[in-house]
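Q: Please design a sequence for this.
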């Protein structure tokens, strides 16, 4: 197999449709007024369909360089599946010219996204009657202090006004879920919360994670243990999605702008994807795929037929390039 091929990559999993108000069956494709409705149509079964159709066409012609398909699983829960996929690709494929991750960008070329780490923090308290709280450790109140520390850290990071391609142009630290406590008059025995850290260029999300772990280990846990030995704080990393970094010469971006007749404008997005994992392996990578991210993860998710046609034109261009050069 020759080097210089093109990888079309997408994830096969979708987010759940449970609890959402759909007017069509989310798991049966419905066509209406030039739109295809169904869970995953835009994120990102539409691109998968275009890629499989492209592979079929590519198999019928003589390619000078290969077209690769890289299909992953468990993307929606934190890009878990792509690590093994990319490691296997690096070990077995001759270096490709470009990786196109077909997340729904409305066929715009996206050259950068934030890096993301998600963490679960479990605070183990010491439960006593709330009238005796000086003898206990309230897991919910410790969790509140940690969440405030994280928010404070975000405000400090936002003070750095160096230019960023992202909106918002600073690192965000968000706690989306908290569970803890049992009653008003019981010192909470445990509390769990989930945090996501989204960093701008120049900051690795794992650095913020390390700062947080250091704070917990040196400042918080000793204070809790002084009250009760069993009290503790346990931090687990749920996922790590490396950033897709803008490079002055990204060959994947050059290829896509040639084929799409792009004016050279590039885009940055605040959501994560598998693209950063490919880029870390040394592959020139962009995001570019049919459908609007606005439709993703929502009830009545749909993709415009016109978007799929644009994507087909794009993959036809890729096949043409692979045949002739
Ligand atoms: Zn996606």
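A: Design:
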């Amino acid at each position: 197999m020759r080097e210089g091929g093109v990888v079309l990559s997408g994830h096969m999993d979708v987010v759940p449709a449970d609890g959402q108000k759909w007017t069509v069956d989310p798991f049966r494709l419905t066509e209406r007024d030039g739109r295809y409705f169904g869970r995953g149509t835009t994120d990102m079964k539409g691109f998968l369909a275009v890629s499989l159709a492209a592979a079929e066409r590519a198999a019928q012609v003589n390619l000078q360089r290969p077209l690769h398909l890289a299909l992953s699983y468990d993307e929606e829960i934190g890009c878990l599946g792509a690590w093994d996929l990319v490691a296997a690709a690096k070990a077995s494929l001759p270096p490709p010219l470009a990786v196109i991750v077909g997340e729904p960008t409305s066929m715009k070329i996206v050259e950068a996204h934030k890096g993301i780490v998600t963490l679960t923090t479990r605070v183990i308290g010491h439960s006593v009657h709330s009238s005796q709280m000086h003898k206990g450790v309230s897991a919910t109140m410790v969790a509140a202090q940690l969440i405030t520390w994280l928010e404070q850290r975000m405000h400090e990071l936002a003070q750095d006004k160096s230019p960023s391609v992202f909106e918002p142009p600073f690192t965000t630290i968000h706690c989306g879920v908290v569970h803890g406590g049992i009653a008003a008059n019981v010192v909470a025995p445990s509390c769990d919360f989930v945090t996501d850290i989204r960093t701008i260029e120049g900051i690795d999300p794992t650095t913020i994670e390390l700062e947080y772990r250091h704070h917990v280990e040196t400042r918080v846990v000793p204070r809790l243990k002084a009250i009760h030995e069993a009290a503790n704080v346990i931090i687990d990393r749920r996922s790590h999605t490396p950033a897709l970094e803008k490079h002055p010469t990204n060959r994947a971006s050059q290829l896509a702008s040639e084929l799409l007749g792009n004016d050279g404008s590039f885009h940055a997005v605040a959501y994560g994807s598998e693209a950063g994992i490919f880029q870390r392996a040394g592959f020139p990578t962009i995001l570019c795929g049919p459908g609007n991210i606005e439709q993703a993860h929502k009830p009545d998710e749909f993709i415009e037929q016109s978007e799929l046609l644009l994507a087909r034109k794009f993959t036809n261009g890729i096949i043409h390039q692979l045949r002739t050069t």
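Q: Thanks. Anything notable?
A: The mean pLDDT is 95. The helical segments are 41-59, 82-92, 139-158, 205-227, 251-260, 275-280, 305-324.
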